[in-house]
Amino acid sequence: MSEQNKFVFGIDLGTTYSCIAYVDENGMPTVVKNMEGDNTTPSVVFFEDENNVTVGQVAKENAVIEPQKTVSFVKEHMGKDDFDFAPYGQKISPEEVSSHILRKVTKDAAEQLGTEVKDVVITCPAYFGTAECLATKHAGEIAGLNVLAIIREPAAAALSYLTRQQGSDKTVLVYDLGGGTFDVTVMKIASDGRAEIVCYEGDQALGGQHWDKAVVDYLKDEFQEQHSDMQEDDWLPEDLQELRNKAEKAKKELSGRGQTKVTLNVAGRRAQIELTREIFDSLTQSLLNRSIDCTDRAIAMAMAKKQGTGANEGVEDAVFNRTLEQVRNDSKTAAKTVIDEILLVGGSTRMPQVATALTERYDIPQQILDPDEAVAKGAAISALAEYEGRVEHWQEQQKNGTFDMQDEEIKEEAAKYQTAATVKTTSIPGFKNNKVSIRQAVTMASTKSYALKVVVNHEEEKCQNLIIKNAKMKNGEIVVTQRFGTDEANQMNAQIMVYESDMSVEYYDVNEIENGNADELGTVTLELPGNLPADSPLDVTFKLTKEGILEVTAKDVTNGGELFVTMQATAGSMLSAEEVKKLKEKSQRIAVV
Asked: What residues contact residue 375 under an 8 Å CB cut-off, 6+ apart?
């Protein structure tokens, strides 16, 4: 590949496996194999020492020998403060670990293609909130990448689907069961190449790894039944890691055959255990049921929104519960009122029990969409569209002289977008001769609700949702402004306390915060002149960006005082800009293979 070619990339940063793709010279979204020749790379990081890191299959195998130096499933900790890992005495953040995974897949892609891998779009699950989205973006920046955008996995899958979509309008349910998370999305697909997200549901603690754990527990119990003298202390960390590897292998084998045998050697004892598909299905039935329950809820929400009067309005609990009861009582009839096709995404959908359960429950046609690759391919399409848009933007700005190109920061930003991409978005199948821009092809919906703590009638504290989950994001964002008033006369300041949750009601009690059903994003203070009467007007604006990041503006209407802030999770482990910069410098000193 010529060095003069300019390509941009999409990265599916997965819980268990990661994948990178680009739009090739022929306009085809294409996955790039890693240096081991595989389309996906295990999201496992082995820290040999402070200066050397191994990522992928070798790291996964080294975990058997040195599990205390190995990290798996780091995606579960993004944007949270529950990660405690210090392989060589120095604590490492989830963003750092993820940056090594990103460096591995981009380095391999660069070597395979013979071109620079710099400009990327990275995916995240639908359930990710502001903290998790920012953490993902920071991971890319630490890896030295120019992160064009963070895109939701269902939106990426939608773009991938649109490359092959032909014919009439339809409503599709995307059942995305990955290695560590589960998302279900309902989206409308139009014949003109547009997709609109109707609603999301999901379970962030449900994925292929949980099926693996069920097999691990079964194999361990069977082994101990054959060796009754076996003590819990006899299971060394290396043994448990080997057990997990064999459980995962057995699960994959059962996708293509009715039975398999697993041989275990632990503490000088040996056992061969037979595992059938029937046993496997029985062990994991409760997990599958959880995914079906989420799917029922997504279908019920789609039905309720279809029956409602406003696409942007929340659905009342009573209406949703009534609709959900309809789905549970007659799932096939209910599903067919809103769903035309089920799209299977995510490697774990290869398990035969998934397709069987969906057929029995809903009896709706299914289509498998590149289970391991669809999200990365969709991200690659998004990356090309984002990059193309920025090149056009900066060319226009320079032509019109809108910006001061002598400003160093502006010059630095403009320099990123001086070279046009080798291929145009109009060359992508499904978008050829299409008047719909890819940047406008998918209309997102809010994956979370965002609330402000208020005092109702000068008496009771409540949380009021200004943005409600599943609200339509026109032009990729939601902007809501609402007028409030000061609580007391001569108030010196107003505290703007912002919360994120999955609750779709307009108001909820503050004890929901203590119960863990809502997370504090942050608190900022708007200074007031101190001579205002009670109920003096204050305008608060919530702006939710397409990346899932909330921006808040508060304004003292009487005196014109204004405060703008991008909310960051005070309850989590968000990195500052300075910390990101330092970690980026540190990352460049570490060799990643």
From this structure: 12, 19, 123, 153, 156, 157, 160, 176, 345
Sequence ranges of the domains in the chain = 168-206+286-367, 208-283, 446-560
Mean of per-residue pLDDT scores for the chain: 87
Q: Thinking of the domain 168-206+286-367, which architecture would CATH place it in?
A: 2-Layer Sandwich (3.30)
582-591 pLDDT tens trace: 999 998 899 9
| Distance from C-alpha of 192 to C-alpha of 174, rounded to nearest angstrom | 20
For the chain (593 residues), the mean pLDDT of every run of 10, in chain order, is 77 95 94 96 93 93 81 90 84 94 97 95 88 92 95 88 76 92 90 83 90 96 92 87 91 94 93 96 97 96 79 69 94 96 92 97 92 92 90 79 70 81 84 60 83 86 91 85 89 87 89 88 81 88 83 83 54 72 90 90
Long-range contacts of 437-440 (CB under 8 A, 24+ apart): 437/385, 438/159, 438/381, 438/382, 438/384, 438/385, 439/385, 439/386, 439/389, 439/476, 440/194, 440/475
**The domain 208-283 is classified under which CATH number: 3.40.630.10, 3.90.640.10, 3.40.50.300, 3.30.980.10?**
3.90.640.10
483 in Cβ contact with 464 (< 8 Å): no
Which CATH fold would you assign to the domain 446-560? Substrate Binding Domain Of DNAk; Chain A, domain 1 (2.60.34)
